[in-house]
Structures are given as C-alpha cells and as structure tokens.
Amino acid sequence: MSETIRYGFYSGCCFQGADARFFDILKDVFAKVDVELELIEDAVCCGSGVIEERSELTSLAVNAKNMAHAEQMGLPLYTPCSTCYNVISNAQKRMKEDPAVHAQVNEILAEQGLEYKGTCKLTHTLWVFAQDVGLEKLKERVTNPLTGLRVASYYGCHTRNPADIQGYESADNPTSLEDILEVLGVQIVEYDTKDDCCGYHLAWPNNDLNMKMTSNVLEGAHTKDVDLMVTSCPLCFKSMDGTQAKALAQTGKNFQLPVLFLPELVGLACGMTSEDMMLKYHGVPVNLRL
Amino acid sequence: MIEKITPVRKSILANIRIQRFTPSEHKSAYFDNFKVSVETGMTVLEALRLIKNTQDSSLTFRAFCRSKICGSCAVRVNGKPVLACSTQLMPILEDFKKDSVSIQPLKNMPVLRDLVVDIEPVIEKLSKMHPYLMENRERIPETLEEESIMSKQEHSRFDYITDCILCGSCYSACSAASADPNYAGPLTLGKAYRFSADVRDSFQGERMQAAVDQGLWSCAQCRKCINVCPKDTRPAVSIQRMRKMSIDDGIHDTAGSRRAKAYTGDVAKYGQVNKPMLPVIVNGPKGWAAIEAAENYLKKHGIEPTLQVCTLGGQSSTQKIYDKVKELEAKGENKT
User: Fold this and answer.
1) For residues A100 and A17, what is the distance between their CA atoms, to the nearest angstrom?
2) Which domain range does residue A97 map to?
3) Which residues of A148-267 form beta strands (DSSP E)?
4) Fewer Cβ atoms within 10 Å of its own Cβ: the N or the C terminal residue of chain B?
5) Same domain, yes or no, for A110 and A140?
6) The pTM is what?
7) Is residue A273 assigned to a domain?
C-alpha cells in the first residue's frame, strides 16, 4: 500500500453552479492516485487579481490569511485554479521580497490571531500528478490507456507567467501536462495557438474580446484535426467549453471541439466512466471512443 | 581557499530555423534552415551575424547597441520574444532539449523584411497616451535653483517602468493585442501609468481618458508581458495600478470598474465573489438575460439554479482585514 499524499485544499470560486460537480470529480480522481484533500476551512476568495485594482494591501492580506491557515494545518496549499495559484504565488513573492510589507500584513492578521510565516508551499494539479504522485505511479494506475486519442494540450497562462512565481518547471517550455498526457496514452498534437490566452478574465470588462480570444485558441487546435482539447486550468475550461458555442458564433466559425478538464481525462484513463466524470454536463458534447 | 572554476564550454551543431519574408517578393513567410555550431555564451545576435557573414548575406535583422539598451533587436526565439543581443542560445537549446531552434520576427506588427518589423503602429498608439509630464505647479518649484523633491516611496511607484526601452516584446506576446488591433497593448498602458503616477504631473484626467479609450480594461491580466519583458518593467502590474487610479479618479462607468468594486465588496461580505448576481452587478438590468441563460443551462442538465452566493469559511473574519487596511490607508501608512 503506497503512502497517501495530503494537501490543504483551497477551492477558490471556480466550482460554482454546474461546475460544483468538480469537487466530487477531483476527490474521486485523486483517490485513484492516493491523494487526499483536506479543506482549508477558513479560506477566503483570492480576489482573482481584481482586488488589486482597489487595494493591493487588501489582496496581500487575504491571501496571507489563506496561506497562514495552510501553514497551521502543516500541509502544502493545493488549488485546482490557475488564477488562484497565480494570485497567491504573487502575494507570496511580494512579501518575500519586501519584509516591511510582510510585517505589515502580519500586523493586520494579528488581530485574528494569525501569522503568515512564509513557509507555505503552493502547488497545482499539474505538479500534483507530474511530480508529487509521479509519472510512474500514475502509469501504474492507468487501466484504460486512451490510445489513439488526438489531444491538443492547453496550459493557460496563470501557471506559467510570470516565470519566477513557480519553481517547478521551465515557464517557456513546460512539459508537465504533456508528460501526464503521454502516461495516459494519448497522442499529443502541436498547434499554433497553444501559448495564446483565452481571455477568460475579460468576460466581464470586455466580453467581445474574450470571445475572440477563446475562438482564436480553439480554431488553432481545430485546424489540426484533434479529437479534443485538455486544459489544466478550470477557468480556461469555462471559456473553452462553457462559452465555446457563443465564441464561435460571434466570430463566424462553425465547429465543435470537446474540451476536458485535466482531472476528467486522468479519471477516464484510470478506469472511471463518462458517468463518473459527469461528462453530460459539458457545454460541448463529449463522445469519446473509449 | 578559493576554488578555481573552469567554465564548461560546450558546442552543439544546431539547426537554426529562421523565418524569411520579403513582402514585394513572397506571398507568405517561409523558413530557411542554417547549420551553426552554437557554443556556450553565443548570443542569438552573434548567431544571426555569423549566418549573415558566412551563409546568406541577404538575411535581414535589426540590431544597434548590442547592449540591451536600444531595444531594436527583439525577435521571437522558439515563440518567446527576447532581445537577440542579450539572449544566449545554449540555455534555450538545453531547456527545449532539442538541437533545433526557431527565430521569428515579433508578432502583432507588420513585417518589413525577414526579422525586421514596423513598430510605428505601436508608437502611434503610445503617442495618443500623452507620454510626457505636464508640470504640477504644486510640486515643481518656481525657480531653476530649487529642486523638485519626491519621496522614495513616491519614486518607487513608477521607477520600475522607466527602464522600458520600447522593444515591443510585451506587445508581441499580448494575445489581446492580437485579437483587437485597436487595443493599446501593455507597453503603451505601462508608459501611461508611468507618467500618471509621477507626482510632478498634473495631466491625469486626459491621459486617463486616453487610456480608458484605448483599452485599459481590455487587458486579460494573463501576465505574459511580465514574463517576456527583458527589463522587468511588469506592464500588467502597471495596468492594475492604472485601473485603480482611474476608479480613484471617479471613472466608475466602466464594466471593469464595476467588476473591481463588486469583487472587492463581495469578498468582505461573503468571503467569496457573488457569482450568480455578477451579470447584473456589472452590466446592469441587461445582465438578467445572462442570468436567465445560465439558469436555463442548469435546468437543462437537471440542476436546480440558485441565486444564493456560495460563501467561504473565512467570511466572518474578512471584514476585520478590510477595516484594518482602511485604517492604515487613511493614516497614509500603507507600505505597498
């Protein structure tokens, strides 16, 4: 029996509405590779980089609070959301570089008996699978290799940029997603728009531009005749799947490209069914030849 | 005892794929392959010069200072914008684990020939941002003998952007600029913030309007510009700060400013963003159409829709953080 890996689970805001299903999906898929998530009870929203547009200090303080709770639990902070990862990492980096700001944030947290020590480790789905679980163990658990499936891999921006917020892999040439996909048995297809941003965070301030950007990324993959796109970012997933029909209609394109959130594809390869992965809730129908 | 370090000098026979294009001759761009012995320490620019001198004199690229100061030699190497003069090839070959590397002109700008692009359209956008100081009489003394003094903290608000050399790397990396030709792009908005954040300036209003008109709220905060900037000027951070300034200046009638206020308020209230109601909060009554569409989507999948916000556990203690920050900001003691 191999050892269980545990994380402090920072859920973020991405799994609301129909996406609330991902709480169960994540839990079940992680169980397949001996990973357990323990909810960080007193967490608050990271602010998505938007609170900075009102007060940088507020953003730093709420995210220091999130990390302080993970430190108290003695566990690394795991978040499935790339933007949460980005915002919390940026806060961590900012306080590490500026001790005066770190001290002021702790002064704010002291009122609720909290201290952010600066020791909290942060991680994301990509590195949970590729590094902590490891490709070898993942390979052992793959019972249903997805051989022959042509897949476009899409990281999204917030686990990659800026380069100095993460120490896991090269920001210019990350390979964790492809490494995982290779273990799942799929055929990885290169395409031109892989490094482009889907524009999810423009959904409110400039929706038309968000739709154009999403459409551009999808079209790049579609022209390579892929079966599906897989992304490690739940927000990119919302753009690519949830708003795909609208994005393509607004830009005069006519195709359907199924998009999967990485844990779903891992689950399928580990023998879980389309029903287990609740694929029927996707905006774009997923009909895989499994 | 000082240990003598002997640098390991490596050499790889690499295939350099260079994008070629002469608008008057070619219908579309194509790649030429050149074999070059890449040695430890060799820069992209040195490789380009070697190819031009020994293999193909028609290869066209631009490079002036060769010292990371003029910004003229920016190109894309394996897709990433870099300064050719200050980027070594060996670490890239090692990072990508290949003995082949591609060199292309910057994106989002017209190609004049091979690796040379026309940066003029970007400079035109920049000129509309009023990138200069209009003197603030309260901070600039009457006589030349007196100095215009600013505190370290005031200086640090924009000091990091003054290093921008207008190389265009951030503009090339920007997906929003690719999708919307009217969007000003990171470097222009970064420069607008640089002047607006300067206490010696008195021109905020018009410059702010220029920034809003040219897409202050069209940045997706993907943060690629921070990654590629050779001078670490962090354009996306400047854009966040410019947005804050615009709201502080009273420009509340944009979807972006309404989102900023909603997120900030919601996190204090619920510990979470009130996603179900966001369409109405940001877009006004017409947002109800989006809520109805979302509800219909949920019903179609057998899920009962709710307008209840899904709160997070830290909800009860968040207001205390906000109050304390407000207190510090009111006293001018904010250290960010």
Assistant:
1) 40
2) 5-123
3) 150-154, 187-188, 228-231, 259-261
4) N
5) no
6) 0.95
7) yes
Interface-testing mutation among A54, A102, A279, with chain B (most B C-beta atoms within 10 A):
A54
Nearest by CB to residue B282, choosing from A44, A101, A204, is: A204
Could you read off the pLDDT of A34-64 as tens digits, one per residue? 999 999 999 999 999 999 999 999 999 999 9
Q: pLDDT digit string (tens) for A231-277?
A: 999 999 999 999 999 999 999 999 999 999 999 999 999 999 999 99
Same domain, A146 and A276: yes
Q: Do B321 and A54 touch (CB under 8 A)?
A: no
Q: Give the end of a domain, one of A65, A94, A123.
A: A123
Number of structural domains in chain A: 2
Rounded to the nearest 5°, which phi and psi values hold at B103? -125, 125
Question: CA of A129, closest CA in chain B: separation in Å?
Answer: 21
CB contact under 8 A, A18 and B95: no
CA distances from B75 to A160, B32, B115, B172, B216 (A): 20, 16, 7, 9, 26
> What does the pLDDT look like over B318-334, one tens digit per residue?
899 999 999 999 888 88
Would you state the pLDDT for residue A16?
76
Query: Looking at the domain assignment, is residue A289 inside a domain?
Result: no
Q: Give the residue from A97, A123, A149 where a domain finishes.
A: A123
Whether A95 and A152 map to the same domain: the answer is: no
Residue A129 lies in a domain: no
